[in-house]
């Protein structure tokens, strides 16, 4: 599990790349679950939460940049 501080230290491009990678992993994990090959069910939860953390950081950055442009 990755901490939010680790995500905040990365650039927006790095976060988007990692988000894409995690979404691919999430798809593969779902596929493994459907075929009965999933070994680590806890990984599904970790990936889902890491995706949410990245989206939160990206949203915070978008909001802060839009308020800076307005003010």
Care to describe what's here?
This protein is mainly alpha-helical and 71 residues long. The chain has a single domain (4-66), classed as Helix Hairpins (Orthogonal Bundle), CATH 1.10.287. The protein contains three helices and no strands. The protein has helices at residues 4-8, 12-35, 41-70. Helix 2 (12-35) runs antiparallel to helix 3. The radius of gyration is 15 Å and the shape is elongated. The mean pLDDT is 94.
Keywords:
71 residues; mainly alpha; Helix Hairpins; 83% helix; Ribosomal_uL29; ribonucleoprotein; Ribosomal_uL29_sf; ribosomal protein
SSE order and pairing:
Layout: H1 4-8, H2 12-35, H3 41-70
Quote the beta fraction: under 5%
Low-confidence stretches: none
Per the principal axes of the C-alpha atoms, what is the gross shape? elongated
Element pattern in H and E = HHH
Largest sheet properties: none
Helix fraction by DSSP (H/I, runs of at least 4): over 70%
CATH second-level architecture = Orthogonal Bundle
Count of the separate structural domains:
1
**Mind telling me the CATH class?**
Mainly Alpha
- The helix tally amounts to 3
Task: Please report the distance between the alpha carbons of the first and last residues.
Answer: 36 Å
Q: How many strands?
A: 0
Radius of gyration from CA coordinates: 15 Å
């Amino acid at each position: 599990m990755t901490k939010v501080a680790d995500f905040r230290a990365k650039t927006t491009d790095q976060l988007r790349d990692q988000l894409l990678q995690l979404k691919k992993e999430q798809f593969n994990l779902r596929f493994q679950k459907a075929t009965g090959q999933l070994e680590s069910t806890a990984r599904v939860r970790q990936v889902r939460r890491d995706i949410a953390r990245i989206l939160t950081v990206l949203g915070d950055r978008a909001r802060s940049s839009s308020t800076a442009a307005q003010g």
